Amino acid sequence: MATKDDVDVLHDLVKKQWNIDSLEIRIPAKISLSKQDVRAEEILNRTMKRIGDEFETGLLWKSCVSLPESKINAFTRLKCVERKMDRDPERYPDATEAIKKLHYMDDYLDCANSETEALKQINDVIAVHKRAHFNICNWICNSKDVLKQINRHLVAHTEKNLDVDGEIPIERILGLWWDPKEDCFTFLTKFQKINSQVMEGKRLPTKREVLRTVMSIYDPLGYITNFTIQGKILLQDIWRSGSSWDDEITSSLEQKWFTCF
After folding, report:
1. What are the angstrom distances between the C-alpha of 195 and each of 157, 202, 208, 212?
2. What's one Pfam family here (predicted)?
3. For residue 158, which of 171, 148, 175 has the smallest C-alpha distance?
4. Which residues, 6+ apart, have CB-to-CB distance to 216 below 8 Å?
5. Residue 222 region, left (φ>0) first, then alpha (ψ -120 to 50), else beta?
6. Mean pLDDT of 177-200
7. In this structure, are residues 121 and 112 in contact, taking their beta carbons and an 8 Å threshold?
């Protein structure tokens, strides 16, 4: 966990990096550079690009995370799954094609025009995976009748004790919350880690708390960009004001904060 001093140092580094943006810096050809300087220069040369009248670079002190085998391993596993599905494509043609196009990491997302069609597709997808020795499970659906006809050991744990008269609970799909009853994505904004006095309006938040609030809303596809963009604009204004991480935001930004949250 970073301390306040660490954060302040990072803050100063970012400011210094942009303060020298317009200066021309020349390094003598024979100067001896440390390993850290060599790496920083390499990052600068590799990531710098001009956008309009400004330059953009990567963070010169950022650690280099190298994962050389990740891509090839993922690709190999994907091709292995596809080869096993292609062994007998005529037996489950629709399911085989759906698996190729509708798998996202370890999640499978699909839809159907009827409960009969949905149940057949689910059973076929399960069968195709089983032939390749994959046990696809944790199934959820917005139809209780379909769920009741799936092997209970393959149904998501929240659905196993399904109440016939009750509502189907909200589930996580690719990091988002899906409401099966309404068939729509929802967003939970409980802000548990935010100070209660801030959320109740008893005091203004610090720059750190505003950042934590804005970043706690997970919206990778931009469904609620019209809402989240307001928080990001507020962060820009706070940064321009020169406030430190643990200073409350200025009174001039108070209305923007309450408008956003």
Report:
1. 33, 10, 11, 11
2. Peptidase_A17
3. 171
4. 189, 191, 193, 194
5. left
6. 82
7. yes
For 119-158, what is each residue's pLDDT tens digit? 999 999 898 888 877 888 888 888 888 988 988 888 887 6
Q: How far apart are CA 129 and CA 127, in angstroms?
A: 5
d(CA 210, CA 214): 6
More confident residue, 160 or 182: 182
Distance of CA 20 to the CA centre of its chain: 33
Q: At which residue do the structure tokens 């950042």 appear?
A: 211
| Residue that the structure tokens 């580094």 belong to | 13
Can you say how many angstroms the Cα of residue 211 is from the centroid of all Cα atoms in its chain?
16
Overall pTM surpassing 0.70 (yes/no): no
Joined together, the tokens standing for residue 133 give 């020795």
Mean pLDDT across the stretch 59-84? 73
H/E stretch holding 147 = helix 144-148
Q: How big is the CA angle at 245 (ends 243 and 249), to the nearest 5 degrees? A: 50
Q: What does the block give as tokens for 67? A: 């994962």
How many helices and strands, by DSSP H and E, does the chain display? 10, 7
Q: Which helix (H) or strand (E) holds 107?
A: strand 107-108
Degrees (nearest 5) of the Cα angle 35, 41, 46?
125
With beta carbons less than 8 A apart as the criterion, state whether 64 and 39 touch.
yes
